[in-house]
Amino acid sequence: MTTTTPSESPAIPLETPTTHGKLIKMAKHAGFCHGVKKAVDKTIDTHDTHQTQDRPTYVLGQLIHNQQEIQRLEAMGIHTVQDLADVPDGAVCVIRTHGAPPELVKLAEARGIHVSDATCPDVRLVQNKAVELAQEGYTVVIVGKANHPEVIGITAYALEVDGAKVVAISHPRDIQDALKDLPRRRIGVVSQTTQMEDSFFDMVKHLSMVAKELKVHNTICPATFFRQHAAAELAHEVDVMIVVGGKNSSNTTHLAQLCVEIGTPAFHIETPEELASPEITEALNKANRIGLTAGASTPDWVIHHVHETLNAQF
Ligand code: SF4
Hints:
This protein is α/β, with parallel strands linked by helices. It contains eleven helices and 13 strands. It is 41% helix and 18% strand. The longest helix is centred in the N-terminal third of the chain and has 18 residues, at 34-51. The structure holds iron/sulfur cluster.
């Protein structure tokens, strides 16, 4: 057994022979990124501190896109709410890694809510770059999904600039429509942090055909970049990929998509129980080498459970 463990990963060996003679190969970068880890630690610390003063802790939206971790936090007394109206006056409110619109923070503070900001520094960087582009007079294009919480926050920050023009676009086919009422001579581009690299470059190529001047900040975060590259590298070496993470996690979904594009069958699962589905079991039974990776919002303990199940049952 190789004993080396990946650098930012759940301390699982890079290679593990299974009970039934197959080989599980672990991606070199997988699981919790530094932003998510910091946010979870900060939330628990904040909760511990304020609990003694009888102030309950609420997280605005899911702290991370992983249902299993949200349930673990709930069991500690850390509640998830979708709306600021559901946070009682004087309570503690955690802003998650995706960030939040600035007016929401002001609203919370005005109600005596203690705001604990766990916005990831990489997301903060995108917010700052979008503001900078708006101040320089560019029409700001955020490459990402308009309804994603991170993009909602970035948009709100940029719109605070007087006269700012901001739009989120997720696919080149939507460019014409999205920009139809906006100035397109000078376009400034940032990316949602978890965007797929190829999609981002494709979007930049298409935008260069409509703008006279294009200023681009590639703000895909390094953790996303490393996970995508490690997953792609591994997908070339194995017969099947198991990608672990929340079904609502963009970065996990992108990892699975990437593996499929390479031509390796890939299954996106949240829990080890899903390995028992007939389709996945059949693919795993046929495979000799099984690749395992996980999105940036997947906790180590979930990855360990999947690894143990693969090891014992296949
Ligand atoms: S995926 Fe990137 S941007 Fe998102 S929390 Fe992790 S480090 Fe931050």
